[in-house]
Amino acid sequence: MNSVMITRVGETQWQAVTRNLIVGHGDVSQRPDGRLFVSIDVWQDEVFDQLAAAMLADLTDPLHTLVGEADLDLKSRWEQAGFTAARREREYVLPTDPSETVVDAVRPAAGVTSPAGVTVLPAGEADEGLLRALDRAIREEVEATVGWQTMPAEVLPRPAGAMVLDPSKYTVAVRNGRYVGLVRVVPVRRRARIGLIAVRADQHRQGVGRALLAHALGSLHRAGIDSAWAEVDESNTAAIALFEGLGARRAGSTIELVRR
């Protein structure tokens, strides 16, 4: 193989070049919670190790990367670079059309309280202060039980004072004037992303999560969005049961690897 020159061409980018041809590049990006995720794309397998070594020499641990669970070769290469598996997530897809799911029976009509005593506030209608208080309370409850490592990767704890919350993305369940559950949905073209669904601990197994998802999916369907997708940690059996119970289709899985 010809000699390869690895160059950092920007704050977040590296290139591998041989004989004036680019044969690979690497990137690093920072998530809102401060974690650094690295990725490498190469045209020649032999270049991966050299590019990884150069990037890791420039960056400070901990570092993270995502790999499709079926891509055993890529997973092995990252492991050889010192990364280990930290979490596994299943990707689920839910159609928004009620004729294709089982959520129609629990879909609350506007103004109707269902389940008993619960009203669902559409996205953008929640009080921001009460929504922030609900978010904090749920984070504390989850951290005290299953831990935030079981929640979607992008909602792991953020540095103090850096919480970002956009009420326009949150649908909220209210019971007797108290905010008890939320779902965050981000519309993306014809498929939306369900970034988070969570319910206060004393409201579990009462249909609140199902009502929230039903309402969110109904809103997406009326907006012309065909499907929604979500990532669920494999250890979060309650969330898996919720999505599969509503007819979600498993579309794949990913492994998050970390080097500390």
Number of domains: 2
CATH topology of the largest domain: Aminopeptidase
Largest sheet, described in full?
8 strands, mixed
The CATH superfamily label of the largest domain reads Gcn5-related N-acetyltransferase (GNAT)
> How helix-rich are the residues, as a percent range?
10-25%
Structural class comes to alpha+beta
Mean pLDDT across every amino acid position: 85
* Named CATH architecture of the largest domain: 3-Layer(aba) Sandwich
Distance between the termini: 32 Å
Provide the β-strand percentage band: 35-45%
Notable traits:
260 residues; alpha+beta; Aminopeptidase; 8-stranded mixed sheet; 4-stranded antiparallel sheet
How would you concisely characterize the structure shown here?
By secondary structure, the protein is an alpha+beta fold. Helix content is 25%, strand content 36%. The two termini are 32 Å apart.
